[in-house]
Each structure stands twice: as C-alpha cells, then as structure tokens.
Amino acid sequence: MSFFNLQTPIFRRKEITQDVQNSPGILRIHLHIGKLTIFSTFYTRLDQACILWGLISAAIFITAQFLPISWIDQAVWWSTLTIVGTICMVNLTWFRVRLEKLHSVLYCWITMMLAGLAITDLSIFLGWGEVLMRLCPMWLGLVAFCYLWTGVEMRSRTFFLTGIIHLLAILILPLVESWQFLTTGIVMGLSVVLLAEFRWDMQHKIDWDLLTPEQKLYI
C-alpha cells in the first residue's frame, strides 16, 4: 500500500459536493453579469486560512522590499499582524484539525511561526546583522519544514511538493540578489493562494464523533 494516494491528482478543480455544502463556515463567491458567470468558487475555512496567510506573507515581504519603513516599525507592525493571523488561523482550522486529528500539523505551524517571529524581532532589536541578512532563507526554510510535515501527516503530495518548492526557492535567492524579499513574498504568498484555489490530495483520518448524522452521509 502506497504512503500517498497515487490515484488522486495532486491538484484538481474544486467542486461543490454535498460534504462541502455541509462544511461549517464555507464562503461562496459567484460573480456574474446576467447569465454569464465571470468567476465562481467557494472557500472552506481552511482555504480562508490559506488566503489570510497569503495576504500577510505578501504584505510583510513586499513592504520590506519596496517601502522605506524602519526595521523597528516593521517589526512592531508585522509582529502584531502575525500574532493576529495565527489566532485567526487557529479559529478557522480548529474544527478541521479536530475532525481529521491533525493537531500536530497545527502545532507545527504555530511553533514555527512564533519561533521565526521571535528570531526576526531579536535580530532587529539586538542588531544581529548576520541573521538579518538571512531572514528570507530562514523563513523559507521554516515554512518548507511546515509544509513537509503537513505532507507527511496528511499523506499529501501537494503539501510535500510545496515544501520542496520552498527549499528550491532558497537556492534561487542568491541569484536574485537585491530582490530576495520580493521573491520570498511571491513564493510564500502564491503557494497558499494556489492551495486555496484548488483541491489537493490527502488521506483522511476522521473522528466520526464530531460529525452530525447528515454530515456522515457525505464523508
């Protein structure tokens, strides 16, 4: 038996099935002009958490790349935003974490985000020049570890591949020289947005006691 489910595509289009309709907190978006549909999709709470982190990642690294804001001001702003984002992530994903017994995945992300935040802030306030010069590869490495761990725990090639892409991005950083923050923001932000836009492979470990009788019919 394969560790990953090789019968399921790594990425596939999302479809509104009955189990998706029964998901708590689902957000539907349907843009149309008359009978012409321009854009139609849905976002589960997990998708919403991905989009949130995509926006946060892009904001942090693109600001560092282009705006003349002091490092100390950025540390205060982005630390606050990261902590708020972490709390929102827990709130958005907690039901899914309990349902599919993915506590270690959530704890991994929380630990890595807070550890990275602490190292970043200390390097700014204490003037650790060597660390400041390596913030981009550090964050890519931390996020890569989280994706790889998620891939193992969820038996998902999608997350495992995303982790490898982040590791490869570290090797690209020396080639982009002064554009490292922009490159890091694009890699981290675009990755989670793609995860939110598509359905990915995984193998479920469901705690059936958390489901209603109606939800059990469609899982």
Describe the structure.
It is built from nine helices and four strands. Helix 2 packs antiparallel against helix 8 (180-197). The longest helix is centred in the middle third of the chain and has 29 residues, at 71-99. With 219 residues, the protein is mainly alpha-helical. It has one domain (45-200). Strand 2 (27-33) and strand 3 form a beta hairpin.
Brief summary:
This protein has 219 residues and is mostly helical. The chain is built from 9 helices and 4 strands; from the N terminus they run βαββαααααααβα.
Number of strands: 4
Radius of gyration from the alpha-carbon trace, in angstroms: 19 Å
SS summary, helix count: 9
Major pleated sheet: 2 strands, antiparallel
Structural class by helix and strand composition: mainly alpha
Work out the oligomeric state of the chains in this entry. Answer: single chain
> How many domains, as an integer?
1
Unreliable sequence segments? 214-219
- Across the major sheet, the strand order is 1-4
Helicity level? 55-70%
**Percent strand:** 5-15%
Overall outline: globular
Distance between the termini: 22 Å
Helices and strands, in order, run as EHEEHHHHHHHEH
Mean pLDDT: 85
